[in-house]
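Notebook, p. 212. Picked up where the previous page left off. The plan for this session was modest: take the two constructs that came back from the sequencing core last week, fold each one, and keep the raw output in the notebook itself so nobody has to go hunting through shared drives later. Recording the first one now, exactly as returned: residue sequence, then the structure token string.
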Amino acid sequence: MIGNRVTPGRVIRTVLPAEVEQVVALHARARATYYPDGVPRDGTDWTASWRGALTRPDGRVLCVVEAGRIIALASFRTPEDAPPEVVKLFQFHVDPGHWRRGVGAALHAACVEEWQADRRRTAVLDVHVDNRRAQGFYRRQGWVSEAAEPGDHHLRMRLGLPGE
């Protein structure tokens, strides 16, 4: 597992439960960029959801901190009914004001490093079909798309993780 990874001006580390409000705010800012009609109000209590992700014994939430502020985060764990060598990236967000500055690539690399240390062989994720920017980012990191069903709101992507 990674400890605190430090690069000039940035630290990559595990999110602390006390930081849940920062996480929820960043999540809302990032999601607002790919919903053309605004973020749907589906009744999800995102504070409770993130609090749960931060305290799950079987999951991890990493973040990038710059100048004392969380500017990116990634939440992952083994999905239900999946073999232990599979990990799912449930959330991956970079604060829009920090796009195209290497933040996402650094966080992604930290995730892959941890997945490999945990002997994962495959990573999967679901990305919103309207989020073309994120799909491009994932493809540049080596993810490949799986066939989507007509009417699906999410595209499944897969990343093969090289072994040791």
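Okay, moving on. Second construct, recorded in the same format:
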Amino acid sequence: MLLAIVFGVVIGLSTGLLGAGGSILAVPALVYGVGQPLSTAVPTALVVVAASAIGGLCSRSRLRLVQWPVALIFGIAGIPGTIGGAALGRSLPQDWLMLGFAALMVVVASRMFRGNDRAGAPDGDLVPKTAAAGAGVGVLTGLFGVGGGFVIVPALTLLLGLTAQQAIANSMVVITINSISGLIAHSGAVAQLDLAVLVAFAGTAMLVSIAAARLAGRLPANTVRRAFAWAVLAIAAGVGISSVIGLAA
């Protein structure tokens, strides 16, 4: 329970401040910290991810930045991918999935070290590009229980020319849509959820995300991003080693 609250703080901070990165810690926290099987950890993580995204979106300033047509296209395009990713995840052994998750964590950390991409000039065919990016993020959400903000934020800045703050706000809408559709895809595991852990984890993440969103303009974003990136790398190493040992056993 204590670990669930601690990781809820970490995920809420990262989502509220950066719009990305925190949800990648939810599944390892639940599997290795709380001791849940992956089949339970993924839907639990999806609730936590949705709660932290909604919390980060609660401020009026963030809501004014949302480009609703963009966010909805991105999010709705991810729904089929989320369902497909969930089905694929159920067919793979847990050690292989966690090994893939460790690789994904390394990718996330590398993106966080580089920081947000600068806004680019929007070009043609934005709807197909946005839909394709949304579908890819949906697969990751269904497969691993992550929000995908580390993909959504740079995609919105590079493809659509949004500023970093606009991309973060839109990312939270997309993360919420993907997480809810992922939870529906994992509905068969809902009865197995530990409600006490879920409430402690998700509630903490949401409250901290609300507070962090209000502090986002006052803290050095690069320093915060790098600190989270190092944490993600350290956990990725542990997850990778544990998965390799499990596969070799």
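Notes on construct two before I forget. Residues 221-248 form the longest helix (28 residues).
Flagging for discussion at group meeting.
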